[in-house]
Each structure stands twice: as C-alpha cells, then as structure tokens.
Amino acid sequence: MGPQLWPAFWVTIQLTFYSAIGSLVWGTILAAMRVSPVPVMRAFAGVYVNVVRNTPLTLVVLFCAIGLYQNLGLTFAPTIKSNNFWLAVLAFVLYTSTFVCETLRSGFNTVPLGQAEAARSLGMPFTQVFGIIVLPQAIRAVIGPMGSVLIALTKNTTVASVIGVAEAAALMKTEIETFSDQLFVIFGVIAVGFMIITLTEGAVFGYLAKRLAVKR
C-alpha cells in the first residue's frame, strides 16, 4: 500500500481555520488596546506584540505544550492527541495575532483622522468610534495583507509537528520512513497540497481586496 498523505491536509486546514479565527479576534483586541486612550492597555499590548512577535514560533508552541500543559495542567481535551491539537491552535493564536494586530494598525492610518474627531465631537466613546468608524474601514483596507498573514499561518502549521500533531509535515516524515523508495512522490504531494491551499487563499483574499476596497 502506498503513502497516504492527503488526509493529513485536513488537519492542516483545521489548524489554519481555528487559528485564523482566534488570531483575528485576539489580534483585533490587541489593536484596539494599542490605540486605546488607557496607558496601561497601550503598554501591555505594545510589550506583548513586541515580545511574542520576536519569539521563535517553535518556542511558543513548546511553551504551550510544556509550560501550560505539563507544568500548569491546562487541558482542552480528554485525549493527548486532541489536547495537543488545541495547544497548537493556542500557540498559533498567541503568535499570529501579533501580526494581525500590526496589520490592522497599518489600516488605521488609512482612515481619515477627521472622521474619528467628528465622532468624538458628537460624544461617542472610544469603543464606538473604534468599532463603528475606524475598524470596519481599516479591515477593508488591509484585506490583501491579511491574506499574506493567513498564508504565513498555513505554512507555520508545520511547526505543530514538534508536539506530535499529525499535520501534513509530520505525516510526510512518517511516510518517508515507511516508503523511502517514493521520496519524490511524497515531497511532490506535500508541495502541491500546500500550493493548492495557499494559492486558493491568495486568490480569495485578492478578490475580496478588490471587491471591498474603500473608495476614496
């Protein structure tokens, strides 16, 4: 029986999907904190983004697996296999959200300052100015760069193999050991699989960037 690699891409897709949702939520919160009028929030978000963004992703994954699970007992699922999957998702969220945050911050600069000032002059609090005026326009302005962040996240999911998550890269290693005579076939399938996923992501975000671009 030959190597069976395609099922592993389902794990890769799941890792990407859940991590992308979590990163978007946490990254948006971080972005709001970085422009918040509260100094403590700005300081926390600034330190968090600069520290985590400059930390190797492998260390973040190992921190979640060893520090949070083995030492602190943080558990998301009853089985080790499922728990490692969600620990990997947590690590990707903690890491990728920093890039989402900085991407959104660049989008804030595209929103005319006068709009925010007009909203504040009407008595709108920061949360409403941010959520109703600034954030929707910023998101539309950075859809293309967000696609690049998602593509990078998809490729980063290979790091999950260090804690035993059976995504594509981990299964590739196992299949190479079992079917060493089909090395080039296995590498080819993995390469094509990642190309299909990332090119699809790029095409979707490219279309959305043109479709939803803010008209000035």
Automatic annotation (TrEMBL):
<dbReference type="InterPro" id="IPR010065">
    <property type="entry name" value="AA_ABC_transptr_permease_3TM"/>
</dbReference>
<dbReference type="GO" id="GO:0022857">
    <property type="term" value="F:transmembrane transporter activity"/>
</dbReference>
<dbReference type="InterPro" id="IPR043429">
    <property type="entry name" value="ArtM/GltK/GlnP/TcyL/YhdX-like"/>
</dbReference>
<dbReference type="InterPro" id="IPR000515">
    <property type="entry name" value="MetI-like"/>
</dbReference>
<dbReference type="GO" id="GO:0006865">
    <property type="term" value="P:amino acid transport"/>
</dbReference>
<keyword id="KW-0029">Amino-acid transport</keyword>
<keyword id="KW-1133">Transmembrane helix</keyword>
<feature type="domain" description="ABC transmembrane type-1">
    <location>
        <begin position="9"/>
        <end position="205"/>
    </location>
</feature>
<feature type="transmembrane region" description="Helical">
    <location>
        <begin position="122"/>
        <end position="143"/>
    </location>
</feature>
<feature type="transmembrane region" description="Helical">
    <location>
        <begin position="54"/>
        <end position="72"/>
    </location>
</feature>
<feature type="transmembrane region" description="Helical">
    <location>
        <begin position="84"/>
        <end position="101"/>
    </location>
</feature>
<keyword id="KW-0812">Transmembrane</keyword>
<keyword id="KW-1003">Cell membrane</keyword>
<comment type="similarity">
    <text>Belongs to the binding-protein-dependent transport system permease family. HisMQ subfamily.</text>
</comment>
<protein>
    <submittedName>
        <fullName>Glutamate ABC transporter permease</fullName>
    </submittedName>
</protein>
<dbReference type="Pfam" id="PF00528">
    <property type="entry name" value="BPD_transp_1"/>
</dbReference>
<dbReference type="InterPro" id="IPR035906">
    <property type="entry name" value="MetI-like_sf"/>
</dbReference>
<keyword id="KW-0813">Transport</keyword>
<dbReference type="GO" id="GO:0043190">
    <property type="term" value="C:ATP-binding cassette (ABC) transporter complex"/>
</dbReference>
<keyword id="KW-0472">Membrane</keyword>
<feature type="transmembrane region" description="Helical">
    <location>
        <begin position="183"/>
        <end position="209"/>
    </location>
</feature>
<feature type="transmembrane region" description="Helical">
    <location>
        <begin position="6"/>
        <end position="33"/>
    </location>
</feature>
